[in-house]
Amino acid sequence: MKDKTRTVSGSKKDVKTASDDVSMEMLTVKALNSSDAERYRDFLENIQEEYFELDLAGNFTFFNNSVCRALGYSAEELLGMNYRRYTANKESEKEVFQAFNKVYKSEEPLKEYIWQITRKDGAKRHIEGSLSLKKDLSGKSTGFRVIARDITERRQAEEKFHKIFMTTPDCIAITRMKDGLIMDVNMGFEEITGWKRSDATGRTTYDINLWNDTADRDFTIEELKSGRDILHNEFKFRRNDGSVRAGIYSARPININNEECLILILQDITERRQVYEELNRTLDILRKGISTTIAVMTSAIEMRDPYTAGHQKKSADVARAIATEMGFAPEKIDGIRMAGTIHDIGKLSIPAEILSKPTKLTDIEYSLIKEHSISGYEMLKDIESPWPLAEIVYQHHERMNGTGYPRKLKGNEIIMEARIIAVADVVEAMASHRPYRASLGIEAALEEIEKNKGILYDNVVVDACLRLLRDKGFRIA
Q1: Domain assignment present for 227
Q2: Residue 280 or 8, more confident
Q3: Are residues 62 and 94 in the same domain?
Q4: Is 454 buried (19+), middle (13-18) or exposed (0-12) by CB count in 10 A?
Q5: Do 382 and 278 fall within a single domain?
Q6: Which of 101, 299, 400, 405 counts the highest number of beta carbons within 10 A?
Q7: Model confidence over 441-474: pLDDT tens digits?
Q8: Residue 213 located in a structural domain
Q9: Looking at the 3D structure of the chain, how many domains does it have?
Protein backbone atom coordinates (compact mmCIF):
# COMPACT_ATOMS: atom_id res chain seq x y z
CA MET A 1 0.00 0.00 0.00
CA LYS A 2 2.91 2.37 0.75
CA ASP A 3 4.45 2.07 -2.69
CA LYS A 4 1.23 2.80 -4.54
CA THR A 5 -0.72 5.73 -3.04
CA ARG A 6 -2.20 8.95 -4.36
CA THR A 7 -4.16 11.95 -3.09
CA VAL A 8 -7.96 11.75 -3.38
CA SER A 9 -9.22 14.18 -0.72
CA GLY A 10 -9.93 17.71 -1.95
CA SER A 11 -8.10 19.21 1.07
CA LYS A 12 -4.44 20.22 1.33
CA LYS A 13 -3.78 17.51 3.93
CA ASP A 14 -2.59 15.03 1.31
CA VAL A 15 -4.96 12.20 2.29
CA LYS A 16 -3.99 8.90 0.61
CA THR A 17 -6.06 6.05 -0.75
CA ALA A 18 -5.15 2.42 -0.30
CA SER A 19 -4.40 1.63 -3.98
CA ASP A 20 -5.33 2.35 -7.56
CA ASP A 21 -8.34 0.01 -7.28
CA VAL A 22 -10.14 2.91 -5.56
CA SER A 23 -9.32 5.31 -8.34
CA MET A 24 -11.21 8.60 -8.72
CA GLU A 25 -12.69 7.24 -11.96
CA MET A 26 -14.65 4.70 -9.88
CA LEU A 27 -15.55 7.23 -7.19
CA THR A 28 -17.00 9.59 -9.78
CA VAL A 29 -19.02 6.80 -11.38
CA LYS A 30 -17.31 6.65 -14.78
CA ALA A 31 -16.33 10.34 -14.91
CA LEU A 32 -15.24 11.20 -18.45
CA ASN A 33 -12.30 13.43 -17.55
CA SER A 34 -10.25 14.73 -14.64
CA SER A 35 -12.28 17.94 -14.52
CA ASP A 36 -15.41 15.94 -13.67
CA ALA A 37 -13.50 14.06 -10.98
CA GLU A 38 -12.24 17.31 -9.49
CA ARG A 39 -15.76 18.75 -9.28
CA TYR A 40 -17.00 15.53 -7.67
CA ARG A 41 -14.16 15.60 -5.12
CA ASP A 42 -14.83 19.25 -4.26
CA PHE A 43 -18.50 18.49 -3.76
CA LEU A 44 -17.76 15.64 -1.33
CA GLU A 45 -15.31 17.75 0.65
CA ASN A 46 -17.73 20.66 1.12
CA ILE A 47 -20.99 18.95 2.02
CA GLN A 48 -21.98 18.93 5.70
CA GLU A 49 -22.92 15.25 5.69
CA GLU A 50 -20.31 12.61 6.36
CA TYR A 51 -19.43 10.67 3.21
CA PHE A 52 -17.14 7.67 3.42
CA GLU A 53 -16.31 4.42 1.68
CA LEU A 54 -15.32 1.12 3.22
CA ASP A 55 -13.82 -1.98 1.70
CA LEU A 56 -15.54 -5.33 2.19
CA ALA A 57 -13.66 -5.84 5.47
CA GLY A 58 -15.03 -2.55 6.84
CA ASN A 59 -11.85 -0.45 6.53
CA PHE A 60 -11.90 3.21 5.48
CA THR A 61 -10.78 3.70 1.88
CA PHE A 62 -12.17 7.18 1.32
CA PHE A 63 -13.84 9.88 3.44
CA ASN A 64 -14.44 13.61 3.44
CA ASN A 65 -13.48 16.21 6.05
CA SER A 66 -16.88 15.94 7.76
CA VAL A 67 -15.98 12.38 8.78
CA CYS A 68 -12.79 13.62 10.42
CA ARG A 69 -14.73 16.25 12.35
CA ALA A 70 -17.41 13.75 13.38
CA LEU A 71 -14.95 11.14 14.70
CA GLY A 72 -12.24 13.51 15.95
CA TYR A 73 -9.43 11.70 14.13
CA SER A 74 -7.03 13.10 11.57
CA ALA A 75 -7.16 11.89 7.98
CA GLU A 76 -3.94 9.94 8.48
CA GLU A 77 -5.40 8.16 11.52
CA LEU A 78 -8.67 7.29 9.81
CA LEU A 79 -7.29 5.88 6.57
CA GLY A 80 -7.50 2.10 6.78
CA MET A 81 -9.21 2.14 10.21
CA ASN A 82 -11.77 -0.64 10.72
CA TYR A 83 -15.34 0.17 11.75
CA ARG A 84 -14.87 -1.78 15.00
CA ARG A 85 -12.48 0.91 16.24
CA TYR A 86 -15.11 3.65 16.34
CA THR A 87 -18.26 1.60 16.92
CA ALA A 88 -19.57 2.22 20.45
CA ASN A 89 -19.75 -1.35 21.82
CA LYS A 90 -19.89 -5.04 20.97
CA GLU A 91 -23.64 -5.02 20.53
CA SER A 92 -23.38 -2.13 18.08
CA GLU A 93 -20.58 -3.95 16.22
CA LYS A 94 -22.88 -6.93 15.74
CA GLU A 95 -25.73 -4.73 14.50
CA VAL A 96 -23.45 -2.85 12.09
CA PHE A 97 -22.09 -6.12 10.69
CA GLN A 98 -25.62 -7.42 10.15
CA ALA A 99 -26.63 -4.19 8.39
CA PHE A 100 -23.69 -4.23 5.97
CA ASN A 101 -24.08 -7.96 5.42
CA LYS A 102 -27.72 -7.41 4.48
CA VAL A 103 -26.73 -4.75 1.93
CA TYR A 104 -23.98 -7.01 0.53
CA LYS A 105 -26.29 -10.02 0.08
CA SER A 106 -29.37 -8.15 -1.20
CA GLU A 107 -27.44 -5.51 -3.17
CA GLU A 108 -30.22 -3.14 -2.07
CA PRO A 109 -29.49 0.16 -0.26
CA LEU A 110 -30.39 0.48 3.42
CA LYS A 111 -31.81 3.87 4.38
CA GLU A 112 -31.99 5.65 7.74
CA TYR A 113 -29.77 3.16 9.56
CA ILE A 114 -28.76 4.44 13.02
CA TRP A 115 -25.24 3.72 14.17
CA GLN A 116 -23.73 4.56 17.57
CA ILE A 117 -20.10 5.61 17.39
CA THR A 118 -17.35 6.58 19.83
CA ARG A 119 -15.23 9.63 19.01
CA LYS A 120 -11.49 9.71 19.63
CA ASP A 121 -12.16 11.73 22.83
CA GLY A 122 -14.51 8.98 24.09
CA ALA A 123 -17.77 10.86 23.49
CA LYS A 124 -20.66 8.71 22.31
CA ARG A 125 -22.57 10.00 19.27
CA HIS A 126 -25.33 8.72 17.01
CA ILE A 127 -25.20 8.91 13.23
CA GLU A 128 -27.94 8.08 10.76
CA GLY A 129 -26.78 6.84 7.41
CA SER A 130 -27.78 5.40 4.08
CA LEU A 131 -25.71 2.37 3.08
CA SER A 132 -25.19 1.16 -0.48
CA LEU A 133 -22.96 -1.32 -2.23
CA LYS A 134 -19.89 -0.11 -4.18
CA LYS A 135 -18.90 -1.94 -7.37
CA ASP A 136 -16.09 -1.68 -9.87
CA LEU A 137 -16.55 -1.20 -13.61
CA SER A 138 -17.00 -4.93 -14.11
CA GLY A 139 -19.86 -5.04 -11.61
CA LYS A 140 -17.89 -6.78 -8.88
CA SER A 141 -18.69 -5.70 -5.30
CA THR A 142 -15.67 -3.94 -3.79
CA GLY A 143 -17.06 -2.24 -0.70
CA PHE A 144 -19.66 0.14 0.63
CA ARG A 145 -20.63 3.79 0.35
CA VAL A 146 -22.19 5.63 3.29
CA ILE A 147 -23.77 9.06 3.53
CA ALA A 148 -24.44 9.93 7.18
CA ARG A 149 -25.30 12.79 9.49
CA ASP A 150 -24.96 13.31 13.23
CA ILE A 151 -28.37 12.93 14.94
CA THR A 152 -27.17 12.88 18.55
CA GLU A 153 -29.20 15.92 19.64
CA ARG A 154 -32.30 14.57 17.91
CA ARG A 155 -31.75 11.19 19.52
CA GLN A 156 -31.40 12.78 22.96
CA ALA A 157 -34.61 14.72 22.42
CA GLU A 158 -36.36 11.51 21.36
CA GLU A 159 -35.09 9.70 24.44
CA LYS A 160 -36.25 12.56 26.66
CA PHE A 161 -39.66 12.50 24.98
CA HIS A 162 -39.83 8.73 25.38
CA LYS A 163 -39.06 9.03 29.08
CA ILE A 164 -41.84 11.59 29.50
CA PHE A 165 -44.13 9.42 27.35
CA MET A 166 -43.48 6.35 29.48
CA THR A 167 -43.77 7.98 32.92
CA THR A 168 -46.73 10.35 32.46
CA PRO A 169 -49.68 9.17 34.60
CA ASP A 170 -52.15 9.53 31.73
CA CYS A 171 -52.83 6.52 29.54
CA ILE A 172 -51.20 7.07 26.13
CA ALA A 173 -51.25 4.75 23.12
CA ILE A 174 -49.91 5.24 19.61
CA THR A 175 -51.85 3.23 17.04
CA ARG A 176 -51.83 2.86 13.29
CA MET A 177 -54.78 4.74 11.83
CA LYS A 178 -55.75 2.28 9.11
CA ASP A 179 -56.20 -0.80 11.29
CA GLY A 180 -55.78 0.22 14.93
CA LEU A 181 -52.48 -1.67 15.35
CA ILE A 182 -50.87 -0.62 18.64
CA MET A 183 -47.34 0.62 17.99
CA ASP A 184 -46.49 1.67 21.55
CA VAL A 185 -48.10 2.35 24.93
CA ASN A 186 -46.85 3.85 28.18
CA MET A 187 -46.94 2.80 31.83
CA GLY A 188 -50.17 4.75 32.32
CA PHE A 189 -51.77 2.53 29.69
CA GLU A 190 -50.71 -0.55 31.64
CA GLU A 191 -52.15 0.81 34.87
CA ILE A 192 -55.48 2.04 33.45
CA THR A 193 -56.27 -0.74 30.98
CA GLY A 194 -54.55 -3.64 32.75
CA TRP A 195 -52.67 -4.57 29.55
CA LYS A 196 -48.91 -4.99 29.76
CA ARG A 197 -46.94 -3.07 27.17
CA SER A 198 -45.40 -6.27 25.81
CA ASP A 199 -48.85 -7.87 25.40
CA ALA A 200 -50.59 -4.85 23.85
CA THR A 201 -47.90 -3.75 21.38
CA GLY A 202 -48.31 -5.40 18.01
CA ARG A 203 -52.00 -6.14 18.53
CA THR A 204 -54.95 -4.00 17.48
CA THR A 205 -57.30 -2.08 19.73
CA TYR A 206 -59.97 -4.52 18.52
CA ASP A 207 -57.85 -7.49 19.65
CA ILE A 208 -57.72 -6.18 23.20
CA ASN A 209 -61.38 -4.96 23.16
CA LEU A 210 -60.33 -1.47 24.20
CA TRP A 211 -63.41 0.11 22.59
CA ASN A 212 -66.48 -1.13 24.44
CA ASP A 213 -68.47 0.33 21.55
CA THR A 214 -66.57 0.13 18.25
CA ALA A 215 -68.72 3.00 16.95
CA ASP A 216 -66.63 5.27 19.20
CA ARG A 217 -63.45 4.34 17.34
CA ASP A 218 -65.10 4.62 13.91
CA PHE A 219 -66.36 8.09 14.88
CA THR A 220 -62.85 9.06 16.02
CA ILE A 221 -61.25 7.96 12.75
CA GLU A 222 -63.81 9.83 10.66
CA GLU A 223 -63.39 13.00 12.71
CA LEU A 224 -59.59 12.85 12.45
CA LYS A 225 -59.70 12.24 8.71
CA SER A 226 -61.87 15.34 8.35
CA GLY A 227 -59.08 17.37 9.95
CA ARG A 228 -60.58 17.81 13.43
CA ASP A 229 -58.88 16.71 16.64
CA ILE A 230 -60.92 14.82 19.22
CA LEU A 231 -60.86 16.53 22.61
CA HIS A 232 -62.27 15.21 25.90
CA ASN A 233 -64.84 12.81 24.50
CA GLU A 234 -66.55 10.57 27.02
CA PHE A 235 -66.76 6.87 26.19
CA LYS A 236 -66.74 3.40 27.72
CA PHE A 237 -63.61 1.26 27.55
CA ARG A 238 -62.91 -2.32 28.51
CA ARG A 239 -60.04 -3.38 30.77
CA ASN A 240 -58.03 -6.58 30.39
CA ASP A 241 -60.10 -8.20 33.16
CA GLY A 242 -63.30 -7.53 31.16
CA SER A 243 -64.64 -4.76 33.38
CA VAL A 244 -66.14 -1.74 31.62
CA ARG A 245 -64.99 1.67 32.80
CA ALA A 246 -65.94 5.28 32.06
CA GLY A 247 -63.28 7.33 30.37
CA ILE A 248 -62.44 10.58 28.62
CA TYR A 249 -60.18 10.44 25.59
CA SER A 250 -58.48 12.89 23.27
CA ALA A 251 -57.01 11.90 19.91
CA ARG A 252 -54.78 13.51 17.33
CA PRO A 253 -53.31 12.25 14.06
CA ILE A 254 -49.52 12.08 13.77
CA ASN A 255 -47.20 10.89 11.02
CA ILE A 256 -44.60 8.30 11.97
CA ASN A 257 -42.22 7.12 9.24
CA ASN A 258 -44.63 8.36 6.55
CA GLU A 259 -47.51 6.37 8.05
CA GLU A 260 -50.73 7.85 9.42
CA CYS A 261 -50.98 7.11 13.12
CA LEU A 262 -53.18 8.11 16.03
CA ILE A 263 -52.04 9.27 19.46
CA LEU A 264 -54.72 8.46 22.01
CA ILE A 265 -54.76 9.93 25.54
CA LEU A 266 -57.19 8.32 27.96
CA GLN A 267 -58.26 9.13 31.51
CA ASP A 268 -60.29 6.81 33.71
CA ILE A 269 -63.15 8.87 35.20
CA THR A 270 -65.18 6.00 36.64
CA GLU A 271 -64.83 7.11 40.26
CA ARG A 272 -65.31 10.75 39.30
CA ARG A 273 -68.45 9.79 37.36
CA GLN A 274 -69.79 7.87 40.37
CA VAL A 275 -69.16 10.88 42.65
CA TYR A 276 -70.82 13.15 40.09
CA GLU A 277 -73.89 10.91 39.86
CA GLU A 278 -74.12 10.71 43.63
CA LEU A 279 -73.86 14.50 43.81
CA ASN A 280 -76.65 14.82 41.24
CA ARG A 281 -78.84 12.51 43.31
CA THR A 282 -78.13 14.64 46.36
CA LEU A 283 -78.92 17.81 44.42
CA ASP A 284 -82.18 16.29 43.18
CA ILE A 285 -83.16 15.55 46.76
CA LEU A 286 -82.14 19.07 47.75
CA ARG A 287 -84.10 20.60 44.87
CA LYS A 288 -87.18 18.59 45.79
CA GLY A 289 -86.82 19.65 49.41
CA ILE A 290 -86.43 23.29 48.43
CA SER A 291 -89.38 23.04 46.04
CA THR A 292 -91.58 21.60 48.77
CA THR A 293 -90.50 24.27 51.24
CA ILE A 294 -91.07 27.01 48.69
CA ALA A 295 -94.51 25.63 47.81
CA VAL A 296 -95.46 25.80 51.48
CA MET A 297 -94.12 29.34 51.75
CA THR A 298 -95.98 30.39 48.61
CA SER A 299 -99.23 29.00 49.97
CA ALA A 300 -98.69 30.86 53.22
CA ILE A 301 -98.12 34.15 51.36
CA GLU A 302 -101.18 33.73 49.20
CA MET A 303 -103.35 32.90 52.22
CA ARG A 304 -102.32 36.20 53.80
CA ASP A 305 -102.53 38.17 50.53
CA PRO A 306 -105.46 36.73 48.52
CA TYR A 307 -105.51 39.74 46.21
CA THR A 308 -102.17 38.72 44.66
CA ALA A 309 -102.75 34.95 44.70
CA GLY A 310 -100.91 33.40 41.75
CA HIS A 311 -98.77 36.51 41.11
CA GLN A 312 -95.53 34.82 42.15
CA LYS A 313 -96.15 31.71 40.05
CA LYS A 314 -97.05 33.75 36.97
CA SER A 315 -94.03 36.02 37.48
CA ALA A 316 -91.85 32.91 37.79
CA ASP A 317 -93.23 31.56 34.49
CA VAL A 318 -92.48 34.84 32.69
CA ALA A 319 -88.99 35.01 34.25
CA ARG A 320 -88.24 31.41 33.21
CA ALA A 321 -89.36 32.15 29.62
CA ILE A 322 -87.15 35.26 29.48
CA ALA A 323 -84.13 33.36 30.80
CA THR A 324 -84.70 30.61 28.24
CA GLU A 325 -84.98 33.19 25.45
CA MET A 326 -81.67 34.68 26.61
CA GLY A 327 -79.98 31.27 26.30
CA PHE A 328 -79.24 30.60 29.96
CA ALA A 329 -78.17 27.12 31.08
CA PRO A 330 -80.94 24.87 32.45
CA GLU A 331 -79.53 25.00 35.99
CA LYS A 332 -79.59 28.80 36.02
CA ILE A 333 -83.12 28.88 34.56
CA ASP A 334 -84.27 26.59 37.40
CA GLY A 335 -82.82 29.02 39.93
CA ILE A 336 -84.56 31.99 38.32
CA ARG A 337 -87.88 30.13 38.28
CA MET A 338 -87.44 29.18 41.93
CA ALA A 339 -86.59 32.76 42.92
CA GLY A 340 -89.59 34.06 40.98
CA THR A 341 -91.85 31.70 42.88
CA ILE A 342 -90.84 33.22 46.24
CA HIS A 343 -89.74 36.75 45.32
CA ASP A 344 -92.46 38.24 47.59
CA ILE A 345 -91.83 35.86 50.52
CA GLY A 346 -90.94 38.88 52.69
CA LYS A 347 -94.63 39.87 52.72
CA LEU A 348 -95.10 37.26 55.44
CA SER A 349 -93.73 39.88 57.83
CA ILE A 350 -96.20 42.58 56.74
CA PRO A 351 -99.54 42.95 58.60
CA ALA A 352 -102.34 41.12 56.77
CA GLU A 353 -104.65 44.15 56.92
CA ILE A 354 -102.14 46.14 54.82
CA LEU A 355 -101.69 43.31 52.30
CA SER A 356 -105.44 42.87 51.86
CA LYS A 357 -106.39 46.55 51.93
CA PRO A 358 -108.69 47.18 48.93
CA THR A 359 -107.99 50.92 48.75
CA LYS A 360 -104.92 52.99 48.07
CA LEU A 361 -102.11 52.61 50.60
CA THR A 362 -100.86 55.50 52.70
CA ASP A 363 -97.20 56.53 52.50
CA ILE A 364 -96.45 54.74 55.77
CA GLU A 365 -98.24 51.60 54.62
CA TYR A 366 -96.35 51.67 51.31
CA SER A 367 -93.04 52.08 53.14
CA LEU A 368 -93.88 48.94 55.12
CA ILE A 369 -94.66 47.07 51.88
CA LYS A 370 -91.23 48.09 50.52
CA GLU A 371 -89.61 46.34 53.48
CA HIS A 372 -90.59 42.93 52.04
CA SER A 373 -87.35 42.72 49.97
CA ILE A 374 -85.26 43.03 53.14
CA SER A 375 -87.49 40.64 55.09
CA GLY A 376 -87.32 38.08 52.29
CA TYR A 377 -83.52 38.28 52.24
CA GLU A 378 -83.34 37.75 56.00
CA MET A 379 -85.57 34.67 55.72
CA LEU A 380 -83.50 33.09 52.93
CA LYS A 381 -79.90 34.15 53.55
CA ASP A 382 -78.97 31.17 55.71
CA ILE A 383 -80.68 28.54 53.58
CA GLU A 384 -78.27 26.26 51.67
CA SER A 385 -79.13 26.44 47.97
CA PRO A 386 -77.39 25.94 44.62
CA TRP A 387 -78.77 29.34 43.56
CA PRO A 388 -78.45 32.88 45.02
CA LEU A 389 -82.12 32.95 46.02
CA ALA A 390 -81.69 35.36 48.92
CA GLU A 391 -79.79 37.89 46.82
CA ILE A 392 -82.30 37.70 43.94
CA VAL A 393 -85.18 38.36 46.35
CA TYR A 394 -83.17 41.19 47.95
CA GLN A 395 -82.57 42.94 44.60
CA HIS A 396 -85.74 42.37 42.58
CA HIS A 397 -86.99 45.94 43.17
CA GLU A 398 -83.67 47.60 42.33
CA ARG A 399 -83.54 49.63 39.11
CA MET A 400 -80.74 50.17 36.57
CA ASN A 401 -80.49 53.93 37.26
CA GLY A 402 -80.33 53.50 41.04
CA THR A 403 -83.89 54.65 41.83
CA GLY A 404 -85.04 51.28 43.14
CA TYR A 405 -85.03 49.90 46.67
CA PRO A 406 -83.93 48.93 49.26
CA ARG A 407 -80.22 49.65 48.52
CA LYS A 408 -80.50 51.86 45.43
CA LEU A 409 -78.15 49.59 43.45
CA LYS A 410 -77.50 50.48 39.84
CA GLY A 411 -76.22 48.88 36.62
CA ASN A 412 -73.91 45.91 37.09
CA GLU A 413 -74.36 46.06 40.86
CA ILE A 414 -77.65 44.24 40.24
CA ILE A 415 -77.26 40.56 39.42
CA MET A 416 -78.78 39.39 36.13
CA GLU A 417 -81.27 37.04 37.80
CA ALA A 418 -82.74 39.97 39.76
CA ARG A 419 -82.98 42.09 36.59
CA ILE A 420 -85.01 39.32 34.95
CA ILE A 421 -87.35 38.97 37.96
CA ALA A 422 -87.80 42.77 38.01
CA VAL A 423 -89.11 42.84 34.41
CA ALA A 424 -91.28 39.73 34.88
CA ASP A 425 -92.73 41.17 38.13
CA VAL A 426 -93.70 44.47 36.51
CA VAL A 427 -95.19 42.90 33.36
CA GLU A 428 -97.28 40.36 35.29
CA ALA A 429 -98.50 42.93 37.86
CA MET A 430 -99.60 45.48 35.23
CA ALA A 431 -101.25 42.85 33.00
CA SER A 432 -103.29 41.28 35.82
CA HIS A 433 -106.47 42.42 37.64
CA ARG A 434 -106.28 43.66 41.19
CA PRO A 435 -109.25 44.23 43.54
CA TYR A 436 -108.32 47.90 43.80
CA ARG A 437 -107.90 48.38 40.00
CA ALA A 438 -108.63 46.72 36.69
CA SER A 439 -105.93 45.16 34.54
CA LEU A 440 -103.89 47.77 32.71
CA GLY A 441 -103.38 45.29 29.85
CA ILE A 442 -100.38 43.53 28.41
CA GLU A 443 -99.69 46.27 25.87
CA ALA A 444 -99.47 48.88 28.62
CA ALA A 445 -97.03 46.63 30.47
CA LEU A 446 -94.87 46.21 27.37
CA GLU A 447 -94.93 49.96 26.72
CA GLU A 448 -93.75 50.52 30.28
CA ILE A 449 -90.70 48.30 30.00
CA GLU A 450 -89.93 49.48 26.44
CA LYS A 451 -90.12 53.15 27.46
CA ASN A 452 -87.81 52.59 30.42
CA LYS A 453 -85.43 50.16 28.74
CA GLY A 454 -81.90 50.98 29.83
CA ILE A 455 -83.26 53.41 32.46
CA LEU A 456 -85.15 51.27 34.94
CA TYR A 457 -84.83 47.88 33.27
CA ASP A 458 -82.00 45.96 31.66
CA ASN A 459 -81.81 46.36 27.84
CA VAL A 460 -81.21 42.68 27.04
CA VAL A 461 -83.93 41.47 29.41
CA VAL A 462 -86.49 43.88 27.99
CA ASP A 463 -85.65 42.90 24.39
CA ALA A 464 -86.10 39.20 25.25
CA CYS A 465 -89.42 39.89 26.95
CA LEU A 466 -90.70 41.94 23.99
CA ARG A 467 -89.75 39.17 21.55
CA LEU A 468 -91.61 36.60 23.63
CA LEU A 469 -94.84 38.56 24.07
CA ARG A 470 -95.01 40.42 20.77
CA ASP A 471 -93.33 38.10 18.25
CA LYS A 472 -93.46 34.57 19.65
CA GLY A 473 -96.97 34.46 21.05
CA PHE A 474 -96.06 33.83 24.71
CA ARG A 475 -99.07 34.32 27.00
CA ILE A 476 -99.22 34.96 30.73
CA ALA A 477 -101.40 32.16 32.09
Answers
A1: yes
A2: 280
A3: yes
A4: exposed
A5: yes
A6: 400
A7: 889 999 999 999 999 999 999 999 999 999 888 8
A8: yes
A9: 3
Q: Are 143 and 61 in contact (CB under 8 A)?
A: yes
Q: Which amino acid makes up residue 331? A: E
Q: Are 264 and 122 members of one domain?
A: no
**219, 264: one domain:** yes
pLDDT value of residue 308: 60
d(CA 76, CA 455): 94
3-state secondary structure of 291: helix
% of the chain residues with pLDDT over 90: 37
Distance CA 95, CA 104 (A): 14
Q: Are 247 and 236 in contact (CB under 8 A)?
A: yes
User: What is the C-alpha to C-alpha distance for residues 303 and 301, in angstroms, rounded to an integer?
Assistant: 5
Closest by CA position to 53, among listed 30, 35, 26: 26
349 shares its domain with 421: yes
Q: Sheet of 141-150: strands edge to edge?
A: 60-63, 50-55, 141-150, 124-135, 110-118
- 277 and 260 belong to one structural domain: no
Quick one: CA dihedral 164, 170, 175, 181, positive or negative?
A: positive
pLDDT digits (tens, 9 = 90+) for 285-311: 777 777 777 777 777 766 766 666 578
Identify the CA nearest to 348 among candidates 328, 370, 375, 322: 375
Pairing assessment for the beta strands 124-135 and 141-150 based on DSSP bridges: antiparallel
Strands 244-256 and 259-268: antiparallel
427, 318 contact by CB (below 8 A): yes
Specify burial of residue 427 (Cβ count, 10 A radius: 0-12, 13-18, 19+). buried
* Confidence check: pLDDT of 209 > 90: no
The residue segments making up the domain with residue 207 are 168-268
For residue 383, report the phi and psi dihedrals to the nearest 5 degrees: -85, 130
Label residue 193 left, alpha or beta by phi (over 0 means left) and psi (-120 to 50 means alpha). alpha
Domain identity same for 296 and 428: yes
C-alpha distances out from residue 249 to 228, 229, 388, 390, Å? 14, 11, 35, 40
In terms of C-beta density within 10 A (0-12 exposed, 13-18 middle, 19 or more buried), how is residue 100 classed? buried
Task: For residue 3, give the DSSP letter.
Answer: T
pLDDT in tens, 358-377: 777 788 888 888 899 999 99
What number of CA atoms fall less than 13 Å from residue 407's CA on the CB side? 14
Cα 321 from Cα 465, distance rounded (Å): 8
In a domain, 2, yes or no: no
DSSP string across 362-387: PHHHHHHHTTHHHHHHHHHTTS--SS
441 in a structural domain? yes
* Closest-CA residue to 392 (of 383, 330, 20): 383
Q: How far is CA 169 from the centre of its chain?
A: 16
